[in-house]
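User: Second chain of the day. Same drill as before.
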Amino acid sequence: SNLSARFINLPSEKLDCEIEHALKMVLEFFQVDRCGLLHIIPDREVWKISYLASSQFAPPIPLGTELPRSIHPWAYDRLANRGEVVLFSKVDDMPDEARVDKQTWRDWGIRSNLVIPLFLNKAVVHIIAINAVQEERGWPEEFIPRLQLLGEIFISALERRKAEQALRESEEQLNLSAS
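Assistant: Same format as last time:
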């Protein structure tokens, strides 16, 4: 609730900074190594890292990195197509059909993972991903709805900014044609 209050009437130019701040707070609260907001680009079947907070122990991943479905086919299907949460405390807890995903997580040093789909107009458009690389950890289920709400706040703010930009561009076009 403290985080959501920060987004009410937030000027567009401060949005990126506030999302990054909120992800850092989530990172600290869960005492994990990486927390990110990723955008799903369905026609290309990739996740694009839009915002990221990392601890000093997490290998760096640049913003804008695109992660193709091919490295997480099982998780991509669960998240993007079914709208299901993907979580594990241990990589080995994942089913056999997630073997490609498990190998990717091992290669990246991810020991525990919580990934939550975020919806806009009944379609999954973003995900919040929280990774632990230093040690395995459990994910209390009562936090999932709270993280979904936080993600919906992010999406609403991002959509509001997109609408404001479209309105400004439209006004500029009208001003140009009136001149």
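The mean pLDDT is 91.

User: Great, on to the next one.
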